[in-house]
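A.,

Following up on our hallway conversation. Structure tokens first:
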């Protein structure tokens, strides 16, 4: 039995390796040589018009990539319930219109060649670069799913209430290391969060800078339902710059979300946070590595799935 189990595990490992091996940085070099430049120009324009959009596109890729297959982009229909209504997504994911616009532009130069999942992966990288962050080589060749699961999105995506152990488990379940987890959390150097996601931290937690908490309470009152959608920057120091200030904030107990501050709260990730706070280069390198690792989570390749003509719906 033991040898059979080992053989089964070996087969799974080989299958997983084969899936990511099919991704390639040169995947569209022949079939759509202008794909990456088309995506980049559209992302740069969108982020220039609204810097917050950069964070939204990174988050959209993250929420897609707990299975990088474009499933998060599928809109609900009368006969289909997708991921957009799941608790981690409802009322908060945004940027689908930008991806739709990019898809239209890409379709104009290469008909039904570039997947929505790949567009998301490239747009996330280009968003980070547009806001002053690091670049990395995006592996390509993902195909788009023909379905989506609201239940999986609810179960897989870590909520802002998670403690360190729950976060570690959620990322490990997707074969992401603790260092990957801390580095990916650094994407909160850009973007904003809604009051309903940090209210409990403001009023009920003690590991928060008093002046920082006070400054946020005016727009995020204690009563539930009052100001729920009010926004605050995840990084108050440099909210529209992709840098390592997020970690410096954690050292000062100025993490906005509970799931931010738990990364520096006397636990096993404290030293990683200190390292990223003291070295922008260390953070940039770890973040780039983690984004590639995240982008390799269970992609559909080869003949799996499809190349959608429109990102919000499966092909008819």
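Then the amino acids I'd put at each of the 316 positions:
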């Amino acid at each position: 039995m033991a040898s059979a189990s080992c053989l089964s595990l070996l087969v799974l490992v080989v299958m997983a390796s084969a899936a990511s091996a099919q991704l390639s940085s040169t995947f569209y070099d022949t079939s759509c040589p202008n794909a990456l430049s088309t995506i980049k120009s559209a992302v740069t324009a969108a982020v220039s018009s609204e810097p917050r959009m950069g964070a939204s596109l990174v988050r959209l890729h993250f929420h897609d990539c707990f299975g990088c297959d474009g499933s998060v982009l599928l809109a609900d229909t009368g006969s289909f319930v997708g991921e957009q209504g799941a608790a981690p997504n409802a009322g908060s994911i945004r940027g689908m219109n930008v991806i739709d616009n990019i898809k239209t532009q890409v379709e104009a130069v290469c008909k039904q060649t570039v997947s929505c999942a790949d567009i998301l992966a490239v747009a996330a990288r280009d968003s980070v670069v547009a806001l002053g962050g690091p670049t990395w080589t995006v592996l390509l060749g993902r195909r788009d799913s023909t379905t989506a699961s609201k239940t999986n999105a609810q179960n897989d995506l870590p909520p802002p209430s998670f403690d360190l152990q729950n976060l570690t488990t959620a990322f490990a379940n997707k074969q992401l290391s603790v260092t990957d987890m801390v580095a990916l959390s650094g994407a909160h150097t850009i973007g904003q969060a809604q009051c309903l996601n940090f209210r409990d931290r403001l009023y009920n937690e003690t590991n928060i800078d008093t002046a920082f908490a006070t400054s946020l309470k005016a727009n995020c009152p204690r009563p539930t339902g009052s100001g729920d959608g009010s926004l605050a920057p995840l990084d108050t120091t440099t909210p529209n710059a992709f840098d390592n200030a997020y970690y410096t904030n954690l050292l000062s107990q100025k993490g906005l979300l509970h799931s931010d501050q738990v990364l520096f709260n006397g636990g096993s990730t404290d030293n990683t946070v200190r390292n990223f706070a003291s070295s922008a280069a260390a953070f940039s390198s770890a973040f780039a590595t983690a984004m590639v690792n995240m982008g390799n989570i269970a992609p559909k390749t080869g003949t799996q799935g499809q190349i959608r003509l429109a990102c919000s719906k499966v092909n008819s």
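Strands lie at 192-194, 231-233. Curious whether your intuition agrees with the design.

B.
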